[in-house]
Every structure is written in structure tokens, then in C-alpha cells.
TrEMBL record:
GO terms for cellular component: cytoplasm; nucleus. It comes from Adineta steineri. PANTHER family: ALKYLATED DNA REPAIR PROTEIN ALKB HOMOLOG 8. This is Methyltransferase type 11 domain-containing protein. GO terms for biological process: tRNA methylation; tRNA wobble uridine modification.
Length: 261
């Protein structure tokens, strides 16, 4: 991994994936390894459920079966004790935190979830798809969610937005300058390198590496930040999907859809 002081031409940053294998390697190195490494640290900063996700979960009748895809530390798993919530994630570190909390979770990649078709009344997938590095793989993940829903079931998907100012309102991510920011890298135009994003600033590119600083090391998480209507565009390739609502929630694009019979 390059250090922040390396000149761009000497850095060994990953490049935009050209194949599925490249994409797997990029996600392994800059998503899965990082989440495992930061699991406890990350979990300590993630306890406040987003109100609109809670509102979505509150819309289901008692005893509905809900899957949380990419459940992280399980912060949505105990919103209601009359729902049957199951979570899955690629990070063993985060799953073990869920298990300590007695949540029902299993290890799975969101592109291939080992569960029968038409199983769930609802699915949430919160802040996960922006870690998938090609459009085809993002489509695979959404197809998998559609497959798992019962006809009439609904899913809520949220992703980080490239636009951090919508209708003249800046997101909390941009306005909250409490976190120390450190400009770390600029794009090397000669290569296809993925740039390092400067935290708490507007995104310059849709594909970027976002630093996570631990006392002893700086880790880089891969993100594909979505532009307006990008989720709708991908979903338009899947039959059986009816979009119920789409909105921006403080720097995130969100979509609620129903699986049609
Ligand atoms: C920003 S966290 C969000 C966690 C949780 N949904 C929340 O809202 O707190 C992203 C989560 O996605 C998981 N993740 C990333 N890529 C994944 C994949 N391909 N399959 C399953 N989970 C994945 C990570 O391990 C991590 O738990």
C-alpha cells in the first residue's frame, strides 16, 4: 500500500477493474480485508440506526421475515422484536459481533446468497452496494435481492451518493468537519489508478478509495459512489421490479422497490 507522502507516479494504488477477476481482487483487498481489520473500531462508530431505514422496517406486519444483506454489526437487527430478522455479511469480524449480540447471521457474499428463491417478505441492503466495483456485479447483487424476495415483498437499498449537495443542502458528511481531514492524493492522469478521496469533501470521481485511520495504520476502503438515478438504471435491467419510492437521504441515494408476481 502506498503512503500518503508518495508521489503519484511511485504509488501502487489499485486500478479500475477491467475484468471480474480484477474486481474480486480489488474488493478482497480494499473492502473485505479492511472490514475485517477494522471490525471492532467500525462497530464502535455505528450504533445509530438511520430513521428512514427504521421507518421502512416499521412498515412490515408482525412476524415478517426480513433479510439484512451486508448487515455489518447488526444495527438494524433488533429494531422490532416481532420481526424475524436474519443478516448476512462478507466480514467474519462483523458477523462475530452480531453473534455476540445473539443475532441470526450467516457468512455470504451479496452476489450469491445461499437461500431459496421467494423466501423473504422484506430485504434491506444499507450502504453495501457502493463497495461493489463493476456495474455488472452491482446488477448481480440486485438480482440476488430480487430473487430472494417473495412476490409482493419489498426491498430498501441505500448507497453513498456522489452528489453530496442536493437542492442546495449539503450533506452531514460534508458539513461535519469535526473529523481531521488530510488531503492525500491527486489523480495520476497517465494511469487508471483509483484516486484517494479527501474525507469530508465532494467526490471528484465515482470510483475512489476512502481512508480509514487506525492508530497504527491507514487503510483504504474502495467505494463506487452513485450518481442520481444510477440505482434506477441498474434496476431497469431486472424484470419483476416496481419502484415504490426513491429519494436522497443526507448524501445517500435510496430506493424502495417491490417484487412483482
Ligand atoms: C458501510 S458497512 C454497512 C453495514 C450495515 N449495513 C449498516 O448499515 O451499518 C458495509 C458492509 O457491507 C459489507 N460488504 C461489503 N461487500 C460485501 C459483499 N460483497 N457481500 C456481503 N457484504 C459485503 C461489509 O462487510 C460491511 O459490513
Amino acid at each position: 500500500m502506498s503512503s500518503s507522502s508518495s508521489p503519484p507516479h511511485q504509488s501502487i494504488l489499485p486500478t479500475i477493474p477491467k475484468s471480474d477477476l480484477d474486481a474480486c481482487q480489488l474488493e478482497q483487498e480494499h473492502v473485505h480485508k479492511v472490514y475485517n481489520n477494522i471490525a471492532h473500531n467500525f462497530s464502535d462508530t455505528r450504533h445509530k440506526p438511520w430513521p428512514r431505514v427504521v421507518e421502512f422496517l416499521r412498515s412490515f406486519p408482525s412476524h415478517s421475515l426480513i433479510l439484512d444483506v451486508g448487515c455489518g454489526n447488526g444495527k438494524y437487527m433488533n429494531i422490532r422484536n416481532d420481526l424475524m430478522m436474519i443478516g448476512c455479511d462478507r466480514s467474519e469480524g462483523l458477523l462475530s459481533i452480531c453473534r455476540d449480540r445473539q443475532y441470526q447471521v450467516f457468512l455470504s457474499d451479496c452476489m450469491n446468497i445461499p437461500v431459496p428463491t421467494n423466501m423473504f417478505d422484506g430485504v434491506i441492503c444499507i450502504a453495501v452496494l457502493h463497495h461493489i466495483s463493476t456495474e455488472n456485479r452491482r446488477l448481480m447483487a440486485l438480482k440476488e435481492i430480487v430473487r430472494l424476495l417473495k412476490p409482493g415483498g419489498q426491498a430498501l437499498i441505500t448507497v453513498w451518493a456522489k452528489e453530496q449537495e442536493v437542492e442546495n443542502k449539503k450533506s452531514t458528511y460534508i458539513t461535519n468537519k469535526n473529523t481531521k481531514t488530510c488531503p492525500v492524493h491527486t489523480k495520476n492522469e497517465q494511469t487508471n489508478e483509483i484516486i484517494i478521496h479527501t474525507p469530508r469533501t465532494e467526490f471528484q470521481q465515482p470510483d475512489c478509495l476512502v481512508p480509514w485511520t487506525k492508530p497504527t495504520e491507514k487503510l483504504l476502503r474502495y467505494y463506487h459512489v452513485f450518481v442520481k438515478d444510477e440505482l434506477e438504471h441498474i434496476l431497469s435491467h431486472i424484470s419483476q421490479v416496481k419502484i415504490i419510492n426513491s429519494y436522497n437521504d443526507d448524501g445517500n441515494w435510496c430506493i424502495i422497490f417491490m417484487k412483482m408476481a
